[in-house]
């Protein structure tokens, strides 16, 4: 089981050769794809990375023209959003990933994408419950 989970984890860094974006730029643009600009801290939190790491990644994406920082009146923090070029690159690479997943799902034997999704969701929910229980236990030990 550990071997299969590790194989699944490694899939995150595999991207089609025709990809335009580096993995980190794609991840940032994925977070920003909901249309809401973010602070560096918000991006770091959502990506579960150190702020200094995300800062380097954002700066690299800005240099390549995929992201921009902008000021907001009344705020000390600058916000980050995709540029037109960043949105286009994200759409391009997103379609490459969709195409790959369609091929994977077509070859999924035995099984179906629906069953995989249901089981993956059940796994993630069970994992979240386990983490919450561990956190409650750690807090009660610290308080006790």
Automatic annotation (TrEMBL):
- Please give one Gene Ontology molecular function term for this protein: DNA-binding transcription factor activity
Source organism superkingdom: Bacteria
Domain HTH marR-type positions: 21-69
Return the protein name.
MarR family transcriptional regulator
């Amino acid at each position: 089981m550990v071997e299969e989970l590790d194989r699944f984890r490694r899939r995150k860094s595999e991207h089609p050769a025709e990809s335009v974006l580096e993995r980190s730029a794609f991840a940032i643009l994925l977070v920003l794809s909901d249309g809401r600009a973010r602070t560096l801290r918000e991006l770091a939190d959502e990506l579960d990375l150190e702020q200094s790491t995300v800062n380097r990644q954002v700066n690299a994406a800005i240099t390549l023209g995929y992201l921009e920082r902008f000021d907001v009146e009344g705020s000390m923090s600058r916000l980050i959003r995709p540029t037109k070029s960043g949105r286009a690159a994200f759409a391009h690479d997103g379609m490459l990933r969709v195409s790959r997943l369609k091929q994977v799902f077509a070859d999924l034997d035995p099984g179906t994408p629906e069953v995989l999704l249901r089981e993956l969701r059940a796994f993630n929910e069970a994992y979240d419950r386990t983490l919450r229980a561990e956190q409650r236990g750690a807090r009660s030990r610290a308080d006790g």
